[in-house]
Design brief:
By secondary structure, this protein is an alpha+beta fold. Helix content is 45%, strand content 11%. The protein is built from 13 helices and 7 strands. Helix 6 (134-142) runs parallel beside helix 13, helix 7 packs antiparallel against helix 8 and helix 7 (158-169) crosses helix 12. The termini are far apart.
């Protein structure tokens, strides 16, 4: 990098990043607007679970209470969860081929269901999934050996790229905790006027120093590799929105509730 070029941390976290972020956040919404950068437009087709429930009411007792069996029959049936619609499929062997960065995965390698998620750290829908759904799915399926869950970077703006870089620079085994912390605090840093300082303060809570923070964000190869993961997802697997999930190779877009993702996983077991 020549002396005339702006430093990487400033390029990642400058005021220009704020403008890019604002457009990326809009693109992550259901309005499906284009992002400001040359990266693919961020759109979402958030899939909300449609539940149906019918209730039947037993006639009022005339003189004696109804037996317990009749009361049970008159109770409300369990709601049925509608599965999200697949947008196609990809070859699993190709999907799981090594990329520019080591895979960040949780769960048994031989689990019957493999989920690959492409996400952006500044996408509110991704934050919703990881804040509201992921922990329950981890406890129910990942920790029990039924699901292997892989996260891949798909940053739509410079701040998302910086956040991914910091997660990659975190101590071994701390990638997922760092991602979780950044998603929980997304509103504090993603739209902050000074994104660099906001990320620095959060990074210090994860054990970074000023020096290690600067070293991470000036690692040009790491930035190139993060972007390479995104480009591969777009070109080879048709990722256009975040979050995007590949469940045993089937392509699904949009945030999912615990009930919807559980039903989807159960359908693959």
């Amino acid at each position: 990098m020549s002396a005339s070029q702006t430093s990487l941390p400033k390029r990642l976290l400058s005021g220009v990043a704020v403008a890019a972020l604002a457009m990326a956040l809009a693109a992550c919404s259901d309005e499906k607007k284009e992002a400001a950068s040359a990266t693919p437009a961020e759109t979402t087709a958030s899939t909300d679970a449609t539940t149906t429930a019918s209730t039947s009411q037993a006639p009022a007792a005339a003189s004696v209470a109804k037996p317990a069996t009749e009361v049970a029959q008159a109770s409300t049936p369990a709601a049925k969860v509608e599965l999200p619609k697949s947008e196609g499929s990809v070859d699993m062997a190709k999907l799981l081929e090594p990329g520019a960065l080591p895979e960040m995965a949780l769960g048994e390698a031989n689990a019957p269901v493999t989920i690959v998620e492409y996400m952006s750290m500044t996408c509110p829908h991704c934050a919703n999934f990881h804040n509201d759904t992921f922990d329950a799915i981890k406890a129910k399926y990942i920790d029990s050996g039924k699901v292997r869950f892989i996260v891949r970077e798909f940053p739509f703006d410079p701040r998302a790229a910086a956040a991914f870089m910091l997660a990659r620079c975190a101590p071994e085994g701390q990638y997922f905790p760092m991602v979780s912390m950044l998603f929980k605090q997304q509103e504090q840093w993603a739209a902050a006027q000074n994104g660099r300082d906001a990320l620095l303060q959060l990074s210090k809570l994860a054990g970074f120093t000023q020096e290690s923070f600067e070293a991470c964000l000036t690692n040009q190869k790491l930035l190139d590799d993060v972007n390479a993961v995104m480009q591969r997802g777009a070109k080879e697997f048709g990722v256009k929105s975040t979050p995007t999930f590949f469940v045993n190779g089937e392509h699904y877009s949009g945030d999912m509730s615990v009930d919807v993702m559980s039903a989807l996983i159960d359908s693959k077991l």
